[in-house]
């Protein structure tokens, strides 16, 4: 970082990894002072006008002018709650207008947005709070029960969406618009995005104001190629950077509209495409497969760009979607550490079964364990660098992800002579199911809290619909016997303990688990069988 910070609270800057542990960052020269909210909102109004529709959501519809007004009023509420530039603001709500307003208002004040998935349980929120130390939490009234179980939060909580006099929206409507904007440096941290490691302990990735604009000016500009007349929509939560980019950053950068769905399940997604005439769709391969048999019930002729990420896209899914809609799926691989997609292809560059080529602005390679490039067609570790890159907040795992200036994603890939990358597998014990990252040890720990479980191993099992599902091999404690009823009980226990999407869809009871001579669980042997 070279430009003087605009942060009063230097918490994030003080916890950046040492500069020698950073990846190489390939950046065009940016203005030294950037506020991403101003770039996405004020500058867009200057270019496209205030009357264009910005967001269509369950809690309202906003033009860009109305959005700016509510963001300024929300900023006033946050300022009154003690938020200063550099303060972390935790956001907990489904995809809707007031979540987007709160995110933009946080950046406008120079705050650091910490958006969390609403399905997370207290035991998953605890480490996020511990790591990020938020000053204020904005929590949707429907998700307060679990939030109130979180230990260690020392800040203030503002309820969102209740309509009560002390709710965020009521307080904002009563407040004067705050016209002040934080004078943030382009390299000041704007958001913390959490991702699970293979241990289940979350890692906080840090991204700057200029990173937010970089993903719009690379992947969106060169691959999605949106116009101001587009209508974006999709299923990923804004807590996931795939959703944040596709549903907020990309449309706002170009002055387009976005449909924010609180429930993005395939039937609701299809209904929204039909109703709102969505043109640019963002969701996971699982959802595209699930929507196929429902397509005859809805008019999806408005679609022109369909982006798939979050898990590997099977060629069969690509062909089935194209045959049914005549719209080619744009595959892509991204990472929370990189903020968004860095390998993809569109239009005539698409080769079904391949993820694509490196997005302009990025560089990628397939490397061996010594960081030596592999021969074309040979499987190795995927490495990438570009205008964004991994900087974990005070985490020793920085040196595992960044090696020799490259971001090592943990994926095994091959690259052909034409520069097309093809996914092979994950290199660790992270299970990617329906676009969700699930750490096997985290599910194991949840299962071990049940008295019936003496030992457990969790792996990913192939699944035709979800790509991969979570499977648990369970050795019962004495006095318990494996049964279908016990399997359901264990599944319900996991759903109540951690985020429900992490539960094992398959449970197999075993007499013993494979181990090394020193007693270490050999998860790889079970993975090989699956």
Describe this protein with a few key phrases.
530 residues, alpha/beta, Rossmann fold, 2 domains, 5-stranded antiparallel sheet, globular
Work out the number of β strands.
25
Number of domains: 2
Kindly report the average pLDDT value.
94
Spans where pLDDT lies below 50 across 5 or more residues: none
The proportion of residues forming helix, as a percent range, comes to 25-40%
| Fourth-tier CATH superfamily name of the largest domain | ANL, N-terminal domain
The fraction of residues in strands falls at: 25-35%
Question: Kindly, what is the distance between the CA atoms of the first and last residues, rounded to a whole number of angstroms?
Answer: 46 Å
**Rg, Å, rounded:** 23 Å
What is the topology?
Elements lengths: L10 H4 L21 H13 L4 E5 L2 E4 H17 L7 E5 L4 H12 L3 E5 L5 H11 L3 E5 L3 H4 L8 E5 L7 H7 L14 E8 L5 E7 H16 L6 E4 L6 H14 L2 E4 L5 H11 L3 E4 L1 H7 L13 E4 L6 H11 L3 E6 L6 E4 L12 E2 L4 E5 L12 E6 L12 H4 E2 L2 E10 L5 E6 L3 E4 L2 E4 H9 L4 E11 L3 E10 L7 H14 L8 E4 L13 H7 L1
Parallel strand pairs: 1-10, 3-4, 3-5, 5-6, 9-10, 9-11, 11-12, 12-13, 24-25
Antiparallel strand pairs: 1-2, 7-8, 13-14, 14-15, 16-17, 17-19, 18-19, 19-20, 21-22, 23-24
Helix pairs in contact: 2-3, 2-9, 3-4, 3-7, 8-9
């Amino acid at each position: 970082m070279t430009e003087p910070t605009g942060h009063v609270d230097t918490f994030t800057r003080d916890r950046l990894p040492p500069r020698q542990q950073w990846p190489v960052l390939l950046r065009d020269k940016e203005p030294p002072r950037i506020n991403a909210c101003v770039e996405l909102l004020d500058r867009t109004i200057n270019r496209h006008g205030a009357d264009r529709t910005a967001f269509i959501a369950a809690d309202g519809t906003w033009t860009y002018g109305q959005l700016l007004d509510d963001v300024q009023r929300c900023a006033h509420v946050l300022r009154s709650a003690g938020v200063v530039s550099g303060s972390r603001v935790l956001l907990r709500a489904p995809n809707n207008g007031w979540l987007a307003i709160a995110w933009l208002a946080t950046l406008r004040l120079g705050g650091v947005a910490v958006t969390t998935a609403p399905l997370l349980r207290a035991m998953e929120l605890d480490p996020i709070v511990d790591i990020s130390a938020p000053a204020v939490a904005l929590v949707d009234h429907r998700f307060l029960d679990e939030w109130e179980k979180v230990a260690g939060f020392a800040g203030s909580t503002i309820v969102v969406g209740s309509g009560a006099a002390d709710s965020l929206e009521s307080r904002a409507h009563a407040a004067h618009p705050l016209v002040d904007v934080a004078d943030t440096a382009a390299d000041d941290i704007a958001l913390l995005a959490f991702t699970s490691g293979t241990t289940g302990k979350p890692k906080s990735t840090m991204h700057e104001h200029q990173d937010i604009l970089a993903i719009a000016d690379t992947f969106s500009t060169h691959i999605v190629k949106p116009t101001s007349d587009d209508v974006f929509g999709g299923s990923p939560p804004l807590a996931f950077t795939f959703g944040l980019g596709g549903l907020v950053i990309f449309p706002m950068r170009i002055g387009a509209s976005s449909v924010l769905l609180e429930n993005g399940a395939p039937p609701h997604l299809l209904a929204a495409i039909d109703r709102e005439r969505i043109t640019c769709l963002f969701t996971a391969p699982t959802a595209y497969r699930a929507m196929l048999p429902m397509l005859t019930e809805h008019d999806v002729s408005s679609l022109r760009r369909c982006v798939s990420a979050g898990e590997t896209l099977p060629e069969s899914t690509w062909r089935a979607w194209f045959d049914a809609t005549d719209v080619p799926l744009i595959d892509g691989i991204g990472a929370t550490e990189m903020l968004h997609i860095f390998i993809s292809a569109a239009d005539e560059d698409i080769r079904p079964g391949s993820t694509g080529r490196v997005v302009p602005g990025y560089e990628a390679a397939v490397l061996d364990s010594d960081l030596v490039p592999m021969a074309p067609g040979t499987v190795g570790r995927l490495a990438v660098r570009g205008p964004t890159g991994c900087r974990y907040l005070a985490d020793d795992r920085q040196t595992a992800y960044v090696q020799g200036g490259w971001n090592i994603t943990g994926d095994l890939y091959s690259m052909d002579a034409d520069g097309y990358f093809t996914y092979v597998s994950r290199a660790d014990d992270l299970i990617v199911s329906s676009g969700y990252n699930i750490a096997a040890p985290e599910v194991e720990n949840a299962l071990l809290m049940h008295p019936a479980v003496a030992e457990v191993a969790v792996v990913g099992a192939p699944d035709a619909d979800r790509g991969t599902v979570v499977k648990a091999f369970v050795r019962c404690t004495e006095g318990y016997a494996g049964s279908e009823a016990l399997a359901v009980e264990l599944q319900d226990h996991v759903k109540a303990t951690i985020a429900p999407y992490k539960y094992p869809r398959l449970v197999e009871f075993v007499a013993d688990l494979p181990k090394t001579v020193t007693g270490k669980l050999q998860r790889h042997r079970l993975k090989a069988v699956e």
